Amino acid sequence: MSEHRISVDIDEAGVATVTLDRAEKHNALDGAMFDALLDVTGRLKTDGRIRAVVVHGAGKSFCSGLDISSLGQGGGAESLLDREDGHRANRAQRVSVDWAAVPAPVIAAITGNCFGGGLQIALGADIRYAAPDARLSIMEVKWGLVPDMGITQTLPRLVPVDVAKELTFTGRIVSGQEAQALGLVTRAVEDPLAAALELAREIARKSPHAVRAAKRLYDETWTGADASTALMLESELQVGLMGSANQLEAVHAGLAKREPRFADPE
After folding, report:
1. Are the C-beta atoms of residues 52 and 103 closer than 8 Å to each other?
2. Helix axes 245-256, 208-221, angle to 10 degrees
3. d(CA 113, CA 136)
4. Which phi and psi angles does 207 have, rounded to 5°?
């Protein structure tokens, strides 16, 4: 898929490494990159082999945001606002929010610049590891715009509204270290890609049905769900897991003190 600006590698453990592959432009988002991201999330959400996903940028940066010059020269900027049948989000928003539709956990490994739309892609991941010297910004105000790539569905889970406003009103750049302190990223680590892959492989050793259920549980209840709905979902998911093949395998492997052998979801 490199011709579409994205490469995907799936290892034997079921860890998918997704590489934004436009290093010469710091992986800036042009029309082809938007198309590739939507294609990738569409494929990953239906692939039962996938136990965890790591997203990172080739070269120096995760993603420097929109390629304004490309999108403004007949690059299809208007089409990014289209909402296709069956989708609540438009095409621009889906490159962030569609990561939630991937049942497996998604980990973003952030280095270099992570600006504007690039940051919103990272915010769509379940977990974010950033280099201490990475540069992150909700940068849209610089161009006289508001962030509009799904940030209303991601940022409220991470930071208080005053922090969100301060970052959005100013567009200031924060380091990976400060981003961790603010809650924008999960951890600041020297080698985000290596750390993300290590975490992904640890997750891949757990029951994929349990991990997927846990992702769904938090995604559907963390903000906005009333208590009765959230508690009911806990029970429904648990009943679906209890006595299943992978749940019994987890118990048997634990009692036998051996590595479990889990089946992929269908």
Report:
1. no
2. 120
3. 6
4. -60, 120
